[in-house]
């Protein structure tokens, strides 16, 4: 079983660690842009699990300059929420902007872990443009 959202908060990190230690989880997705990313990784780095990039474009702040990714952010520079994205009448996520942020998250993943992710997937956004971007990033990696 997989646990997503490592790095969402300290509490989530500790819950995922417990699930891994208890043998319930053998695959963990880390959100590289979140404040608790390094903390989460430090907890599970020595565990025998698959570690993936849980690409996040709807929680917290981007790693990219918000001016470069306007389709993904609010005026204050934080990501639009998944609810805000869902309420749009059409898929307004710009593929190139999404690619810029996904690659920034991959770079951060590597900085934190020292390696490539075992897999890529996305956090809470159902967008054909987002899915296309994740597939494209997988092929490049």
TrEMBL record:
Keywords: Carbohydrate metabolism, Hydrolase, Magnesium, Metal-binding. GO terms for biological process: carbohydrate metabolic process. InterPro entries: Glyco_hydro/deAcase_b/a-brl, YdjC-like. It comes from the Bacteria. Signal peptide: none annotated. The keyword ATP-binding does not apply. GO terms for molecular function: deacetylase activity; hydrolase activity; metal ion binding. Its cofactor is Mg(2+). PANTHER family: CARBOHYDRATE DEACETYLASE (PTHR31609:SF1), YDJC DEACETYLASE FAMILY MEMBER (PTHR31609). This is ChbG/HpnK family deacetylase. It comes from Eggerthia catenaformis OT 569 = DSM 20559.
